[in-house]
Amino acid sequence: MTRLVRHPVLRAGLPPESAILPHDEDPETRHFGAFDGERLIGVATFFPERCAARPNDPAWRLRGMATVQERQRQGAGRALIEEGVRTAQEDGARLIWCNARVTAQGFYEKMGFVTEGPMFELPPAGRHYVMIKVLRDRA
């Protein structure tokens, strides 16, 4: 079901299978959905994966986050991040990280993520930043 939202938002103009991401089928992967009644309006996928910028910290990665265009900026994305944070914390993660599109940088900053390193090109999606949200400091 994640592909129903991912494809038109993140992979428009590409084949539908381009919305299938590595780790989608891994047993540890968690897919979250935001609904308006029965309609899926937002998705986010989280899974354990170390971040190259902080390799010694247990981390979860966020991928494939998307909200249908007409429902953006209404809280679905915030709710998806909050649920992913809760799940990652329960798993013992110290941080969550993602490759954030330049156009989404402000959203992630509002959610407590910080930019790590320079902007880079990630074909076919365009310009991105690595962004990190620290969940807990080292003891």
What count of helical segments does DSSP give?
Answer: 3
Can you tell me the CATH superfamily? Answer: Gcn5-related N-acetyltransferase (GNAT)
Largest sheet properties: 6 strands, mixed
Helix content: 10-25%
Distance between the termini: 39 Å
Describe this structure as you would to a colleague.
With 139 residues, this protein is an alpha+beta fold. It has one domain (2-134): Aminopeptidase. The chain contains three helices and six strands; from the N terminus they run H-E-E-E-H-E-H-E-E. The protein starts with a helix and ends in a 5-residue tail after the last strand. The mean pLDDT is 92.
Itemize the secondary structure elements and their pairings.
Layout: H1 2-10, E1 30-36, E2 39-48, E3 59-67, H2 76-90, E4 95-101, H3 105-110, E5 114-122, E6 126-134
Parallel strand pairs: 3-4
Antiparallel strand pairs: 1-2, 2-3, 4-6, 5-6
In brief, what are we looking at here?
The chain is α+β, with helices and mostly antiparallel strands.
